[in-house]
Amino acid sequence: MRSLKRDIAAFACALAFVAEIPIAAAQDADANATGARSKVFVTGSNIPTIDGETAVPVQIITREDIQRANIQTAAELAQTISANTSYGNFTENQGFAFATSPGLAAASLRGLTAQRTLVLVNGRRIANYALAGTVTDLNVIPVAAIERVEVLKDGASAIYGSDAIGGVINFIMQDEFRGLNATAQYSSPQHTGGWSDHFNVTAGYGSLAD
């Protein structure tokens, strides 16, 4: 009697498994029929993984965050990163104070100097500042075209080299923009020597996909 019950239970499980196969096949067919696609964005030279798999999470600054803080330059944006310390970096005014680096603005993650902080644009290296060796000038990055910023605050020298010991700041630019966007900022402090003005204009039409 017990053996008969086991046989009936096994037969019922087999029927349930066979009935499940056409349902799963039908679901796959529906997904293929609708043409569902998922986009994957690769922004670095390493294999991308989800945030939970990495030992050190990546800080992401979105375009909405940039607009909410009224940030006008990439150098101002770098100043909002908690790991960017005053030691070893350059602001625009500091750059003009040194004859060897006029107008330079550079970040210094974890206080390891600008020479040890790697700056990328869309996951790629850009030309260094001509008068300061391996330092990247943040002033060459138009903030109006930034989509988001990914900041790796831990060292990444094993992936990128010795210039990434302090960390990596990866600027992701907009891949498509339609319309006109303009911003302006003027600062005039009480004492002379610290005034600045910034203008950003972005314009685009059409579609890159078309």
β-sheet strand percentage: 15-25%
Could you say what the CATH topology of the largest domain is called? Ferric Hydroxamate Uptake Protein, Chain A, domain 1
Biggest sheet, in brief? 5 strands, mixed
Distance between the termini: 71 Å
Structural class: alpha+beta
What's the domain count?
Answer: 2
Q: What is the CATH first-level class name of the largest domain?
A: Mainly Beta
Residues in helix, %: 25-40%
Query: So how many helices?
Result: 5
SSE layout:
Blueprint: H1 2-34, E1 59-62, H2 63-68, H3 74-79, H4 92-97, E2 117-121, E3 124-125, E4 146-152, H5 157-160, E5 167-173, E6 179-187, E7 196-204
Parallel strand pairs: 2-5
Antiparallel strand pairs: 1-4, 2-3, 4-5, 6-7
Overview of this structure, please?
The chain is an alpha+beta fold. It has 2 domains: 38 residues; 154 residues, TonB-dependent receptor, plug domain (Ferric Hydroxamate Uptake Protein, Chain A, domain 1, Beta Complex), CATH 2.170.130. It is built from 5 helices and 7 strands, in the order αβαααβββαβββ. The strands form 2 sheets. A 5-stranded mixed sheet has the order 1-4-5-2-3. Strands 6-7 form a two-stranded antiparallel ribbon. The longest helix is centred in the N-terminal third of the chain and has 33 residues. It is globular and about 45 Å long. It starts with a helix and ends in a 6-residue tail after the last strand. The relative contact order is 0.13.
How would you describe this structure in keywords?
5-stranded mixed β-sheet, Ferric Hydroxamate Uptake Protein, Chain A, domain 1, single chain, 7 strands, 210 residues, alpha+beta
